[in-house]
Amino acid sequence: GVEVGPQPQGVARADILDKMRKIVKHGLDFVQLFNEGKEFPPCTIEVFKIMEKVDYPRNKNDEIIAIIHPKLQDQDWQPLNNGDPLFLTLDGEVIPYQGDCTVYPTFINEAAYYEKKQAFVKTEKIKLTARHLRCSVS
């Protein structure tokens, strides 16, 4: 499956549809070349590995007491360092990120995740290495 976004539910965006078409085309091109016996050289790629889901700050009644800080909003996949603004309380208090390493938040303030108690997902950037790949054609 391919999920391309973000986009609001029920909204068809031409730019997102174009990205989805390109991704599917590249995938199909790869399958065709692989089936034809093309050899793909070893490669290394940076990816984002999910570390944990982070909830909004809540009070004892389980009510959200802070929102995503404006400097974090729309910053998916961007580095978040110790001390960077994370949440903003309704009283205007900034709650900073407190972590021992740089993380890369994603799915920041997605409406579909409010009920799942998820303000964003922390990811870490890692490198994956693949050996060469070749299919022998009969």
UniProtKB/TrEMBL annotation:
Pfam families: AstE_AspA_hybrid. One of its GO terms (molecular function) is hydrolase activity, acting on carbon-nitrogen (but not peptide) bonds, in linear amides. Residues 44-125 form the AstE/AspA barrel-sandwich hybrid domain. It comes from the Eukaryota. InterPro entries: AspA/AstE_fam, Aste_AspA_hybrid_dom. One of its GO terms (cellular component) is cytosol. This is ACY2 Aspartoacylase. The lineage of its organism: Eukaryota, Metazoa, Chordata, Craniata, Vertebrata.
